[in-house]
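## retry 2 of 3
previous attempt timed out at serialization; input unchanged, resubmitting
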Amino acid sequence: MRTIRSSTIWTTAGLALILGGGLAAIGWQVHPAGAFVGLLAASVVAYLGLRRPYQRWRRAQAGLPADWRVWLRTRIPPYTALDADDQQRFERDVLFLMDEFDFEGIRGVAVTDDLRLSVAAAAALLLHGLPDWELPGTRTVLFYPGHFDDEYGGSRGAGYDGMAHEQGPLIMSAPAVRASWQHPSDGNNVVLHELAHLFDFDNTGPDGVPSLVDGRSAQAWQQLIRDEMRKVERGTSILDPYAATAPSEFFAVAVEHFFEEPQAMREEHPELFEAMTALFNWTPAHPGEPKSNPESTPNPDAT
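## retry succeeded, writing output
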């Protein structure tokens, strides 16, 4: 994630010049003091366009609190396996995401730092190899006290730990969110799963082809998914059986295993592992495993 992009600067400057200059010219024709209307409009455009970059810059200067760094070191193995420079960039992304997500507890759930960090760290993992990208979709997260059903109630038959919507918030069970990082190497992580759906929604809807996939590679990606789903159905895959229910769920489950069990996926599903590495532009590793640092820029062919 970038603190500020050159495109943001140029777009903001262009809009400020066009709008401000146009209003100044019109205002001058009415009254000499009317030119100040254009100056005011240009100032408003500059404020709106540069507010978030400025907030990110200030947040980065403050640095990560020590207890948050301890949490990352004890809960996020891929972060621990990074070198010092990449750890610093990862921490900066966590800071940005902590500020920019809107977290809300439902039915008495207290929104604690560990819940917020659980989501921000997962998003930072997904974006670490894609520094020019932003997390697509919603930035609103609702934490429920336990399992919920289709109507978001806690009935006896409720079985959902997480749910993502194309239009709407991410909904997750607070206990499931905490459990996701208590065992960060078991391939079961509701936070990664639900955030992965946002990349799927961002393309052509929940079809298992995330926005990270180059359009020219979409058919090959879909064929890979079909082949891997058959392995899941036959019981010859390390992926959770839920991956066989739909292509969209396959991608979300694959994301869980890619970040939590990278070495196992490399050994058991080499083609899938290479495809996921290409999508996310880096190879997450756990301490002691082989690792590959992300490139400074993502694949230029990514869409």
